[in-house]
Write a structure and sequence with these properties.
By secondary structure, the protein is an all-alpha fold. The chain has eight helices and no strands. The longest helix has 30 residues.
């Protein structure tokens, strides 16, 4: 009986060791929570954080309208303050394009049947950006405008792409999907404008033109002998 007890004990011990070994191997091969968090998802789009509120129609409309209003007002400001032909042309295109997307947003809201009224005044963040642009020195204005346009269009593109993918209202999702490529184009244009200021070429050309215009004006204003 003692022998049987010894054999049974040994068998239990062996089984326990085997189980421990198996558990150790499984633990070794499994990803830790930290490793899982650091591993990209198979779907690249899913790795982009999507603020949950931006999937709601009222939040999307408010942010999209805010973005359009900023683009329009900043464009009008650039049209009056800039002396750079490239900047003035870009600004005019932005006023026209974002007026059109504002109209498109209103049409999409109507089609959706949702009771949503877009804001008619800039949010505090956007108003602060516009105020900063308004206060910029003449020599810094064009570059700051270009910088703002890159940032604004990147944010707008992110918003549109997120809503097109995860939005809660079909008509607005269609609007977002149709508008995103246009904003992508604007973003590339803004980056090109910003790059020109990075090299100083556009600034130098604009300044040369402004200097010549000023010299001609001074010449006309000078009293004739």
């Amino acid at each position: 009986m003692t022998r049987h007890l010894i054999l049974a004990t040994a068998a239990v011990a062996a089984l326990s060791l085997a189980a421990c070994g198996q558990k150790s191997d499984e633990t070794k091969g499994a990803a830790t929570p930290a490793e899982q968090a650091a591993t990209p998802d198979a779907n690249p789009a899913a790795t982009v954080p999507t603020p949950s509120d931006e999937t709601k129609a009222d939040v999307f409309v408010a942010k999209a309208a805010d973005s359009d209003m900023f683009e329009i007002q900043a464009g009008k400001l650039a049209g009056s303050r800039s002396t750079n032909p490239s900047v003035k042309k870009f600004a005019a295109e932005m006023v026209k394009a974002h007026t059109a997307t504002s109209d498109g947003l209103m049409a999409a809201i109507k089609t959706s049947g949702a009771s949503i009224t877009p804001p008619t005044a800039l949010s505090k963040d956007m108003q602060d950006k516009l105020d900063d642009l308004t206060k910029a020195d003449a020599k810094d204005f064009d570059k700051k405008y270009a910088d703002d346009m890159v940032d604004a269009h990147q944010s707008a593109l992110n918003l549109l792409q997120r809503y097109a993918q995860d939005g809660d209202t079909p008509a607005l999702k269609t609007f977002a999907a149709d508008t995103a490529p246009k904003v992508q184009k604007h973003l590339e244009m803004a980056k090109g404008l910003k790059k020109g200021f990075g090299t100083g070429e556009d600034v130098a050309k604009a300044q040369e033109k402004a200097d010549k215009a000023q010299a001609k004006a001074d010449e006309k204003a000078a009293p004739k002998p």
